[in-house]
Design brief:
Pfam families: ABC_tran. The protein is α/β, with parallel strands linked by helices and about 475 residues long. The protein folds into 2 domains: about 240 residues, P-loop containing nucleotide triphosphate hydrolases (Rossmann fold, 3-Layer(aba) Sandwich), CATH 3.40.50; about 200 residues, P-loop containing nucleotide triphosphate hydrolases (Rossmann fold), CATH 3.40.50.300. The protein has 16 helices and 22 strands. The strands form 6 sheets. The protein has a 6-stranded mixed β-sheet with strand order 6-9-10-3-11-12, sandwiched between helices. Strands 16-19-20-15-21-22 form a 6-stranded mixed β-sheet, sandwiched between helices. A 4-stranded antiparallel β-sheet has the order 2-1-4-5, covered by helices on one side. Strand 1 and strand 2 form a beta hairpin. The longest helix has 16 residues. The relative contact order is 0.12. The N terminus is likely disordered.
């Protein structure tokens, strides 16, 4: 893998205290050592990537820097001055801001109203809408963001909503920006635009902490990288000194095949037939383009006994976030886990334990929402595969999942296919569709416009069809 170069700002070459210095950070939760003696140094004007598998301790470490958690041991220094935060409000007042995976925006309010919320400009005792709009418009122009002050959040695509979150931090004069898995819900084009924004911010002297598990993105956008595994630092250094396989090995502790190809399936009987689409047992059919959400809804509505479904939204559709993990894994298995009409707690625990072990679900807290996003994904996928339905409809199977888990999930999908099931795969990652699919169908404008078999699946032609250029 290669990494594109980025011009360094003058501030990065001047000797000065590090913008962020974490020393010997240790954090324990009940039954879990999340961070163990972790140290991290980041300069001003630097994009620093923090990598690791799901549950490696990345988010915990950044939550400590942001004041959401307090360390059991260790110190934090910003620009050479030791600090101690007991709340995010304290961190923000010192110039530290964080963009979480789940955006905290009011959909019915405008960009300006969201940005100034909690820090409104007051003139003579009243909110000055003119001053607010002017301040937001000035920041948008300064950082060349693709936003308009008066647009409602509900009318913005997800990539621009993320820019609003970044704009909120800039409005609060944050000099240290933490982005937790910022590309998890972005398209490739939106990711590219985000990287442009981050490079501009770093060039202006801002410090960016980029939390990710995506190898190519880290190699492309970051200056330096720190890798965590099981709460400990396993690698650190200039990003240009690492290869993709080296980072993957540091994350997982083993060699990872990043370019694995799988043998073709053996199609059998029809498991799904609708106008324009047929799926056979023993094959994976990939769907690329737009209109997938409506297609999936039409397939999965009212046919749960015949179709297992891994939805795009883990929290809104795929699980009950505040319910125990074991209860979430029991959904759809109630009859098997009951005796004389009553659910058996021991059977539920045993059932959950098998899925947790098979799919390497880590950090198994008391409720679903205590798991990292990647581990929630592994749990939901494991539950649906265990159903053994004739057809599995899986949306974004590896979104928010680290490289080691991606390898495992892909192998599980292939095994499910080879066991005689049909798989309908929807993914924003064209590389994932190309790696797994026996056939690829492309949608444009809500209808199928092209079909490619495994041997003739050319990324350029597929991309052309996705853009409406198919003949």
């Amino acid at each position: 893998m290669t990494r594109s170069s980025r011009a360094r700002s003058p501030s990065m070459t001047q000797p000065s205290p590090d913008a962020v210095e974490l020393r010997g950070i240790t954090k324990r939760f009940p039954g879990v050592l999340a961070n163990s003696d972790v140290s991290l140094s980041v300069r001003a004007g630097e994009i620093h990537a923090l990598m690791g598998e799901n549950g490696a301790g990345k988010s915990t470490l950044m939550s400590i820097l942001y004041g959401l958690h307090q360390p059991d041991a260790g110190t934090i220094a910003l620009h050479g001055r030791e600090v101690s935060f007991t709340s995010p409000a304290q961190a923000i007042s010192t110039g530290v801001g964080m963009v979480h995976q789940d955006f905290a925006l009011f959909p019915q309010l405008t960009v300006t109203e969201n940005v100034i919320f909690g820090r409104e400009p007051i003139r003579r005792g009243f909110l000055s809408r003119k001053a607010a709009r002017a301040a937001v418009a000035s920041l948008i122009d300064k950082h060349e963001l693709r936003l308009r002050p008066d647009t409602r959040i509900a009318d913005l695509p997800v990539g621009l909503r993320q820019q609003v979150e970044i704009l909120k931090l800039l409005y609060r004069e944050a000099s240290i920006l933490i982005l937790d898995e910022p590309t998890a819900v972005l398209t490739p084009a939106e990711t590219s635009r985000l990287f442009g924004v981050l490079r501009d911010l770093a060039a202006a002297g801002k410090t960016v902490l980029f939390v990710s598990h995506k190898l190519q993105e880290v190699l492309e956008v970051s200056d330096n990288v720190t890798v965590l595994r099981d709460g400990e630092v396993t690698a650190r250094g200039a990003t240009s000194s690492f290869t993709g396989p080296a980072l993957a090995s540091a994350m997982t502790g083993r060699a990872v095949d990043l370019d694995r190809t799988y043998p073709a399936g053996s199609p059998g009987k029809v498991v799904l037939e609708i106008p324009g689409l047929t799926v056979y047992a023993g094959e994976i059919v990939g769907i690329a383009g737009n209109g997938q959400a409506e297609l999936v809804e039409s397939i999965t509505t009212g046919v749960h006994d015949e179709v297992a479904h891994v939805p795009e939204s883990r929290s809104e559709v795929g699980s009950a976030p505040h319910a125990p993990l074991a209860a979430n894994l029991a959904v759809g298995f109630q009859r098997r886990l009951a005796n004389k009409g009553f659910l058996r707690p021991s059977a539920i625990r045993e059932h959950a334990g098998k899925i947790i072990a098979r799919f390497d679900v880590r950090g198994t807290g008391s409720t679903m929402d205590t798991l990292s996003g990647g581990n929630q994904q592994k749990a939901i996928l494991g539950r649906e595969l265990t159903h053994g339905a004739p057809l599995l409809v899986v949306e974004q199977p590896t979104r928010g999942v680290d490289v080691g888990a991606i390898e495992n999930i892909h192998a599980q999908l292939i095994a499910y296919r080879d066991a005689g099931h049909g798989v309908l795969l929807v993914s924003a990652e064209l590389s994932e569709i190309l790696a797994l699919s026996d056939r690829i169908l492309v949608m444009y404008g809500g209808r199928f416009v092209a079909e490619f078999d495994r041997e003739n699946a050319d990324p350029g032609q597929i991309g052309l069809a996705m853009a409406g250029g198919a003949r």
